[in-house]
Amino acid sequence: MSSTxxxxxxxxxxxxxxxxxxxxxFNVLDGENSGRVMxxxxxxxxxxxxxxxxxxFFRKGDNYxxxxxxxxxxxxxxxxxxxxxxEVADGQQTLAYQAYYSAGEQQIEQVLNGINYWGEMEINFIxxxxxxxxx
Length: 135
Fold this sequence. Notes:
This protein is mainly β. The chain has one helix at 64-77, and strands at 6-8, 11-12, 17-30, 35-36, 42-43, 46-59, 84-90, 93-100, 108-112, 115-118, 121-127.
């Protein structure tokens, strides 16, 4: 699969990198009043559903500079307390949300003529706020 749509803080990286794996997920977070009562029934205190994305990026062709720019951008903004504004494909629409991420990793594929070629990187973007709240 190759998708070319992602923006971080309004910056599109689709001209420089490609996506080899794109996963959407959701997690429902419960508040402190959730738990089992004496009958065994689960009582929920739902805060909301958090819609997130795990994206695996790779270098397009020999564009190592564009790929390095994405890595540098992710590293630089990983310490922003407000995270990043992420815009990604979701179904047939665009999902936009404030997200944080806390890890990234790459392996070097090869060094050729003094140029480092890095492999895929997977980033798990976690929403800062619930996008879906109980009625």
